[in-house]
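Quiz preparation item.
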C-alpha cells in the first residue's frame, strides 16, 4: 500500500469521526501531527515493505542517511542497493521474520549511500502482515555504532566492553593483544586461541536472536571461569571469542588450557525450555613462534581454526605451515570454481550398475570429476562440500544434468540402447525453490525423456525440510523420474524414511558391502536390508563391490543389482560407449583376486 493511499484512508477516517465526535477528531489530529513530527525529525528510518520486499512506505530520515528522497525509494525493492552478500543476509532476515512473526529480527547490513559511501546500518525487522492497519513487514534502521568504531583512530583504540557479554570487544582485544606482545618482547611466549561456536547461526535461525543472545551470555559466564592473571578473554566477533594466555613456551604447555576450554562445553546449556548441547572448535597460534606481530598472529590462529572446523565439531588445531598450505589449497579451489566450469576443467564420468547374475548393464551413475591445472585431480570429497557451502553446487548440478542429457542423446545417435542415468543431488539443491521446475526445464530444453533419469538423495536431504522434500519427490515421480536413497543404512533413521517418503530405489552403503566377508554385523545388516527391500517391493543396489567374495555373498543373499570397481571404475563417456554397445559388464576377476 502506497503512502498516499495510507494518508487518504486516514483522512477519510478522520472526516467520518469528526461528524460524530469533534473532540475525538481534534485529539486524533493532534496525535497524527505529533507522529509526523517525530518521524520527520527522527534519525531512525521507518519503513514498511510487502511480502516480496517492495517498499510501501519509508520515512523522510532516509534522505539524511542515504541521500535518497522517499519518493525515489517507494515502489522499489528494499534490497536493491545491497551487494550480493548483504542482499542474501537481508533475504535471510525476511525469511526469519515470516517464520517467526512474534520476534524482532536484528542484523547489521552494509549499504552504499547515493554518494557512494559504504556505511553499516543496524536494522530491526518485524512481521506485521496480519495487522490490518499495516499489512507489511516493518523495518526500523539507523546508522550502526560499528561505523563510529571503524572511523575511530587506531591510535586511540579504546578498551571498550561488548554490550551483550560485558567482555572486552574486538577493538579492545586488538589493543590488548598488541600490548601483551610488546611486554613479552619476543622473550616470553603467548598463545592466541580463537573459540568458535559450532552451528551458532543455526541456533539463531531456528530459535531466534533473543535465544541466541541468552546463549552467548551463558557461554561468556562459563569462559570467564578461565580468566586469571595469565589468561585474558575477549569477544572476538558474533559467535567467536579470543583467549590470550601466557602458560608456557610450546604447544604441549597449552594443551591443558585447550582441554579445559573444551570441557566447559560438556554440560548442556538451558535457554528457556530448550536444552542445547553446544560444541566449539579452536584455532591456536603461538607468539613468537608463529608470528611476530598481532595481525599475523590473528591470521594464523584463524587459519588453524578453519582447519580445525574442517575436521568436524569439537576439534582444535595448532597453526603450522601444513595448515597454511591446506588453507591455501582450499582458497585456490574456492577461487577457481567458476573459472574451472568456463574452461572445461570439469568432466562427467560414468559407473555401470549391473545385474549381478547376468552382468547386463541396467543403468549408470554420473559422477563429477575435476582436474585442476595446479592441484591435479581433486577428490569429490574435497570439492563437493565447498560447492555446497558456497551455493555453487546449484549451478554445477544444472551443468551436470545438461552434460548427462548430451551424453544420452549421443548414445541414441550412435544407435546404442538407452539407459537410465543416476545423478546425485544435495540438500542445497533441494532447498532451491524451483528445484523440480529447473530439472523439467533442462529436460525439455535437451529433449530427454524423464523416465531415463534417477535422482539420488542422501539422508541429509530427507532431514532438512521434510515437507518440501515430500512434495518435490512426488513431483519428480509424477513426471517419470525415479528416486533413490544413497548411502542407505548409515543413518539412524533410515528405516523410518521408508514409511515417510515414497522411495523407488535404495542403495546400500559400500561400508557394509566391504565388510561382508569379515564382519558378522555387516553381513547380517546387508542380508536384512536386501530382504526388507524385496518385501517392500523396492529396488536395491549394492554399492562398492570390489571383490569376488563380496559378490558371492550378495548373490547368496539374492541381491540382483550392484556396482563397484570389481565391474568398472567411473569412466569417461567414450569408454562407456563400448560397454553399452556390448550390453554387458563382466566382473574383472583376475588371478590375483582369486589368490592363484
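Solution:
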Amino acid at each position: 500500500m502506497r503512502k498516499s493511499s495510507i494518508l487518504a484512508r486516514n483522512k477519510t477516517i478522520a472526516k467520518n469521526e469528526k461528524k460524530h465526535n469533534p473532540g475525538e477528531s481534534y485529539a486524533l489530529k493532534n496525535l497524527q501531527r505529533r507522529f509526523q513530527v517525530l518521524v520527520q525529525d527522527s534519525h531512525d528510518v521507518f519503513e514498511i515493505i510487502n511480502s516480496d520486499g517492495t517498499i510501501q512506505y519509508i520515512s523522510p530520515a532516509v534522505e539524511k542517511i542515504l541521500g535518497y528522497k522517499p519518493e525515489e525509494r517507494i515502489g522499489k525493492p528494499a534490497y536493491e542497493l545491497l551487494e550480493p552478500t548483504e542482499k542474501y543476509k537481508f533475504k535471510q532476515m525476511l525469511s526469519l521474520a515470516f517464520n517467526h512473526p512474534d520476534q524482532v529480527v536484528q542484523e547489521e547490513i552494509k549499504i552504499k549511500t547515493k554518494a557512494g559511501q559504504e556505511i553499516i546500518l543496524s536494522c530491526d525487522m518485524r512481521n506485521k502482515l496480519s495487522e490490518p492497519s499495516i499489512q507489511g513487514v516493518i523495518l526500523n534502521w539507523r546508522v550502526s555504532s560499528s561505523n563510529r568504531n571503524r572511523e575511530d583512530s587506531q591510535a586511540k583504540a579504546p578498551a571498550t566492553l561488548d554490550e551483550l557479554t560485558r567482555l572486552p570487544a574486538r577493538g579492545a582485544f586488538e589493543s590488548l593483544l598488541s600490548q601483551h606482545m610488546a611486554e613479552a618482547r619476543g622473550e616470553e611466549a603467548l598463545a592466541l586461541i580463537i573459540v568458535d561456536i559450532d552451528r551458532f547461526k543455526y541456533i539463531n535461525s531456528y530459535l531466534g536472536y533473543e535465544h541466541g543472545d541468552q546463549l552467548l551470555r551463558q557461554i561468556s559466564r562459563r569462559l570467564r571461569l578461565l580468566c586469571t592473571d595469565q589468561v585474558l578473554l575477549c569477544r572476538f566477533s558474533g559467535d567467536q571469542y579470543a583467549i590470550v594466555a601466557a602458560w608456557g613456551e610450546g604447544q604441549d604447555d597449552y594443551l591443558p588450557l585447550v582441554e579445559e576450554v573444551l570441557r566447559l562445553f560438556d554440560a548442556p546449556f538451558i535457554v528457556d525450555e530448550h536444552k542445547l548441547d553446544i560444541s566449539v572448535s579452536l584455532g591456536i597460534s603461538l607468539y613468537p613462534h608463529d608470528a611476530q606481530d598481532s595481525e599475523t598472529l590473528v591470521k594464523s590462529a584463524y587459519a588453524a581454526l578453519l582447519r580445525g572446523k574442517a575436521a568436524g565439531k569439537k576439534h582444535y588445531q595448532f597453526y603450522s605451515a601444513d595448515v597454511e598450505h591446506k588453507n591455501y589449497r582450499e582458497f585456490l579451489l574456492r577461487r577457481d570454481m567458476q573459472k574451472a566450469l568456463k574452461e572445461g576443467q570439469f568432466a562427467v564420468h560414468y559407473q555401470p550398475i549391473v545385474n549381478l547374475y547376468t552382468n547386463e548393464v541396467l543403468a549408470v551413475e554420473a559422477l563429477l570429476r575435476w582436474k585442476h591445472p595446479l592441484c591435479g585431480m581433486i577428490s569429490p570429497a574435497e570439492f563437493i562440500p565447498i560447492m555446497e557451502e558456497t551455493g555453487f553446487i546449484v549451478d554445477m548440478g544444472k551443468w551436470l544434468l545438461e552434460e548427462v542429457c548430451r551424453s544420452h542423446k549421443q548414445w541414441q545417435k550412435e544407435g546404442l540402447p538407452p539407459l537410465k542415468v543416476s545423478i546425485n543431488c544435495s540438500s542445497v539443491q533441494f532447498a532451491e525453490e524451483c528445484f523440480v521446475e529447473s530439472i523439467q526445464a533442462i529436460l525439455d530444453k535437451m529433449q530427454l525423456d524423464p523416465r531415463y533419469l534417477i535422482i539420488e538423495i542422501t539422508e541429509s536431504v530427507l532431514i532438512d525440510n521434510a515437507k518440501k522434500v515430500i512434495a518435490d519427490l512426488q513431483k519428480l515421480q509424477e513426471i517419470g523420474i525415479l528416486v533413490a536413497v544413497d548411502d542407505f543404512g548409515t543413518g539412524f533413521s533410515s528405516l523410518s524414511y521408508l514409511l515417510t517418503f515414497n522411495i523407488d530405489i535404495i542403495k546400500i552403503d559400500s561400508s557394509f558391502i566391504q565388510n561382508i566377508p569379515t564382519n558378522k554385523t555387516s553381513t547380517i545388516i546387508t542380508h536384512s536390508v536386501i530382504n526388507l527391500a524385496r518385501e517392500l517391493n523396492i529396488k536395491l543396489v549394492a554399492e562398492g563391490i570390489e571383490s569376488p567374495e563380496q559378490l558371492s555373498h550378495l548373490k547368496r543373499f539374492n541381491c540382483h543389482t550392484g556396482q563397484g570397481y570389481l565391474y568398472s571404475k567411473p569412466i569417461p563417456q567414450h569408454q562407456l560407449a563400448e560397454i553399452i554397445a556390448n550390453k554387458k559388464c563382466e566382473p574383472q576377476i583376475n588371478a590375483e583376486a582369486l589368490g592363484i
